[in-house]
Design brief:
This protein has 674 residues and is of the alpha+beta class. Helices cover 50% and strands 9% of the residues. A hairpin with a 5-residue loop joins strand 4 (112-116) and strand 5. It is globular. The protein starts with 16 loop residues before the first helix and ends with a helix.
C-alpha cells in the first residue's frame, strides 16, 4: 500500500544532518515547532515525537526498516502528526521526553519515541521498535501505531489524563529530591565514595553491569576526594579508590572501548568485558575522558594513560576539527553499510596493511574463528609493545588512505561540547607539559566567542550552518562554557602573563547571563531551557543528575565555587551555599548520579588554591603539577613582585608571602597537599 498523500515531508531545508537524513522518506515528517502542534490540534491527531542523532546505529536501523517503508509511512501519516528531532540540536526536548519515557517504565535511549497529545504532552513512549515481530517481546511498530491510534479515538480522555499526570510528575521531579535548606554535611562525600566503590565491577572494571558506559564523572569524584585529609589518613579507603579508578581506566584503555588505531573512545560496550563496542564516537564523551585520563596520568604516571591522552588528542585534530574552526559533534557508527565498518578488519585487510607474517603475529593475540578484528592491547607476552605500536601506525595509515575520506561525520558545532574540550585541552597540556595544547584551548575559546554568540551577545546552542535558524543556548551551553573559561583562566598566565584576567572576566559575564536567563526565582536551581524559547517542551525542566555529560546545575555549582575563591566577592559564596543546599537528599539517594556535583563540593571543601608569583614561580609550579595532586590551582604571574616571591590563598584565606618558590611548593604539596 502506498501513502495516502504523497506530500513531501518538511525536513529538506533543515540545517541538522540528522533531520536531512529523513528528508526523502515517505513519512510526512515535520520539524519541532509551533506549526506541527497547530496542525495536530486542527486535525485532532496524536503526535509522534521521534528523537535521535546522526551517528546513532539503531536510529538508522529503525529508519531503514520502518520510516522508508511506504506501508508503515501510510499508517503514520494517516493517524499521526510526525515530528523529527535532532537530540543534539534540541537537548531540552530530548531530555524532557527521555525522562517521561522512563516514567512509563520503558527503556530509555535512542531512537526515542514519545506518543503525545496534540499539544505535546506525552502519554506513552519507548525506544526502538522493529517492523516485524522478532520474538523478543517487543510490539512491532505498525501494530503499536494502530493500537495507539485506536485508543486515541476510543478513549482520548484516558490519554489526556495520562498526559496531565506525566507533565505534573515532570514538574514535580524538578524539586522532589532537593533539600529546602542547607543540610549538607561532608560525611556525605565519604558515604558516596563507599557507595561508588561498592558498586565497582572488580573483575572487569566499571560501575555498572553490561552495557558498559564510560563514567568519567564518577572517576573524577574519586580522584578529587582522594586528595582529602579524610581519605589520605584512611589507607584502606585510599587503596580501594586507587584500585577502582585504575582498574576501570585500565580496562577501558586496554579493551575495545578505545580505538587503538586512530585514537578516541567509542560510546559504550554492549558486553561486561569491554570487548564489543557500539561504534559511534561522540565529542562530549571524548572531551570528558581526555580530562580524566590526563588527571589520572598525573596521579599514577601510567604510560597507558599517557598513550590514551596523546592518541585522543591526535584523533580530535585528525578527524573532528580544529581550534580555529571548532569541533564536530560525532562520527557515525556505520561505515560501508556495516556497524563499525571503519574500525573492523578482515584477515585480508590486515595482510594488505601489515604483510602476511606480521598479520599472523597480530592475529595470534585474538580468539580463533572471528571474521572481523578490532585491534586491542593484547597480553604483553604475546606481542612486543614497540612492534604492536608499529602495527597500529601501519593500520592507521592504511585506514586513512582507504576509508577515512568516506567517514560520516556530523559537522554540527555544539557549544556545550566544544566547551568541555576547553577544560580537556588545559588538563592535557599540564599532563604532557606542553604549552601548545593550552594555546589551542585559547584559540578554541576565541573561535567560540566569534561563532557561537549572536549579534545580541546571546549564546547559541550550535553554530548556525548553511543559513539555518539560530537555536538559543541552553543552561549547559552557558555553564560548560563558563566552566571551561575558568579552567583556561587557571593556567593562562603560563602561556602569556596577564592572560588570566581576560578569561576570568569572560567567565563572569557568561555566568551573569546564565543567571539572568535560567535562574528559578522561586526555588533553588536553574532551568535547562531559556525563558524566551519559542516552542518549549511541555514542561519546564531542571536537571540534577549527570547523563553522558554533567548536569548544568552542577557546573554552575563549580563556577560559584571558583568565582568565590578568585574574586573574594561574597555574593558568589552565597550562590554556592544556596546551590549546594540542593544536594544532601540527592547524595544519600543516588550519589552515582550526581558525581560532578560531589566533585565540586569535595574540591571546595579541600580548598581551591590561588597562587600569585613571578615567572620562576609559575614555571616551577607548572612543572610540579605534572605529577602532583589534581586539586584546582589557579596561578597568576606578577613579575613586579620578583621572580621567586609568591602568595598562596586557599579558598578565601591567604598565607604570608613566600620568598622562594621551594617554600610555596612545600606549602602546596607538603603540608596542604597532605
Amino acid at each position: 500500500m502506498m501513502t495516502d498523500d504523497p506530500m513531501p515531508n518538511l525536513l529538506a531545508k533543515e540545517s541538522s544532518l540528522y533531520l536531512r537524513q529523513h528528508a526523502d522518506q515517505p513519512v510526512q515528517w515535520m520539524p519541532w515547532g509551533k506549526a506541527a502542534f497547530e496542525k495536530a490540534k486542527q486535525e485532532d491527531k496524536p503526535v509522534i515525537v521521534s528523537i535521535g542523532y546522526s551517528s546513532c546505529h539503531w536510529c538508522h536501523v529503525m529508519s531503514a526498516e520502518s520510516f522508508c517503508d511506504d506501508y508503515v509511512a501510510s499508517i503514520m501519516n494517516r493517524h499521526f502528526i510526525c515530528i523529527k528531532v535532532d537530540r543534539e540540536e534540541r537537548p531540552d526536548v530530548d531530555q524532557t521526553y527521555l525522562e517521561a519515557v522512563r516514567m512509563f517504565e520503558q527503556s530509555a535511549g535512542w531512537p526515542l519515541h514519545a506518543f503525545c497529545l496534540p499539544d505535546g504532552r506525552p502519554f506513552w513512549g519507548g525506544t526502538y521498535f522493529p517492523k516485524e515481530d522478532l520474538g523478543q517481546g517487543i510490539v512491532p511498530w505498525p501494530q503499536l501505531l494502530l493500537r495507539i491510534s485506536d485508543h486515541y479515538r476510543r478513549a482520548k480522555e484516558e490519554l489526556i489524563e495520562n498526559g496531565e499526570n506525566i507533565v505534573s510528575n515532570l514538574i514535580h521531579a524538578n524539586h522532589a529530591d532537593c533539600s529546602e535548606e542547607d543540610a549538607w554535611r561532608n560525611s556525605l562525600l565519604l558515604e558516596a565514595a563507599h557507595a561508588l566503590t561498592k558498586s565497582h565491577d572488580d573483575r572487569n572494571g566499571g560501575f555498572t553491569p553490561a552495557p558498559k558506559f564510560p563514567t568519567p564523572s564518577k572517576i573524577d569524584f574519586l580522584l578529587a576526594l582522594s586528595e582529602s585529609h579524610s581519605v589520605r589518613t584512611n589507607p584502606k579507603l585510599m587503596e580501594r579508590i586507587d584500585y577502582c579508578v585504575t582498574k576501570t581506566l585500565d580496562s577501558m584503555a586496554e579493551g575495545s572501548l578505545f580505538d587503538h588505531v586512530g585514537g578516541g573512545f567509542f560510546r559504550y560496550c554492549v558486553d561486561e568485558e569491554w570487548k564489543t563496542p557500539h561504534f559511534e564516537k561522540m565529542l562530549c564523551d571524548n572531551a570528558l575522558l581526555l580530562s580524566t585520563y590526563s588527571r589520572a596520568f598525573r596521579k599514577y604516571g601510567s604510560p597507558l594513560y599517557r598513550m590514551v591522552v596523546v592518541k585522543t588528542l591526535g584523533w580530535f585534530l585528525n578527524e573532528m576539527g580544529s581550534p580555529s574552526k571548532g569541533f564536530c559533534s560525532s562520527v557515525s557508527a556505520d561505515h560501508g553499510g556495516k556497524e563499525g565498518g571503519l574500525y573492523l578488519w578482515s584477515k585480508d585487510e590486515l595482510e594488505s596493511a601489515l604483510g602476511k607474517e606480521d598479520a599472523e603475529i597480530l592475529l595470534s593475540a585474538y580468539p580463533s574463528g572471528s571474521p572481523d578484528y578490532l585491534p586491542i592491547i593484547p597480553a604483553k607476552d604475546l606481542i612486543d609493545p614497540e612492534r604492536l605500536e608499529d602495527y597500529l601506525q601501519k593500520l592507521l595509515l592504511f585506514r586513512n588512505e582507504s576509508r577515512l575520506k568516506a567517514v560520516s561525520r556530523d559537522e554540527k558545532r555544539i557549544t556545550s561540547w566544544n566547551a568541555l574540550l576547553l577544560n580537556a585541552l588545559v588538563e592535557a597540556s599540564l599532563a604532557l607539559q606542553e604549552k601548545d595544547w593550552l594555546a589551542k584551548a585559547c584559540e578554541l575559546s576565541d573561535w567560540m566567542r566569534q561563532n557561537l554568540m549572536n549579534a545580541k551577545g546571546r549564546v547559541l546552542s550550535t553554530q548556525p550552518m548553511g543559513g539555518g535558524k539560530e537555536v538559543l543556548g541552553f543552561l549547559d551551553d552557558y555553564a560548560f562554557w563558563a566552566e571551561g573559561l575558568l579552567s583556561v583562566c587557571s593556567k593562562a598566565d603560563w602561556l602569556e602573563p596577564g592572560n588570566s584576567s581576560k578569561f576570568l572576566r569572560e567567565a563572569q559575564e557568561l555566568t551573569g547571563k546564565a543567571l539572568d536567563e535560567f535562574r528559578d526565582e522561586q526555588r533553588i536551581g536553574c532551568f535547562f531551557s531559556p525563558q524566551s524559547l519559542e516552542c518549549p517542551p511541555p514542561a519546564q525542566k531542571k536537571f540534577w543528575y549527570d547523563n553522558a555529560v554533567p548536569a548544568g546545575n552542577s557546573s554552575m555549582l563549580r563556577i560559584f565555587s571558583f568565582l568565590r575563591s578568585l574574586t573574594g566577592d561574597e555574593k558568589w559564596e552565597k550562590e554556592y551555599l544556596q546551590a549546594r543546599s540542593a544536594y544532601p537528599i540527592l547524595a544519600r539517594k543516588a550519589p552515582y548520579g550526581i558525581a560532578h556535583a560531589l566533585t565540586v563540593i569535595a574540591e571546595h571543601e579541600i580548598g581551591i588554591c590561588s597562587v600569585k608569583g613571578g615567572k620562576k614561580v609559575v614555571s616551577s609550579l607548572v612543572e610540579a603539577l605534572a605529577n602532583k595532586p589534581h586539586r584546582p590551582i589557579f596561578m597568576t604571574q606578577n613579575d613586579s613582585v620578583g621572580e621567586n616571591k609568591s602568595t598562596l590563598c586557599v579558598g578565601t584565606s591567604c598565607l604570608p608571602d613566600f620568598e622562594r618558590e621551594e617554600e610555596l611548593l612545600e606549602a602546596l604539596f607538603g603540608k596542604l597537599g597532605s
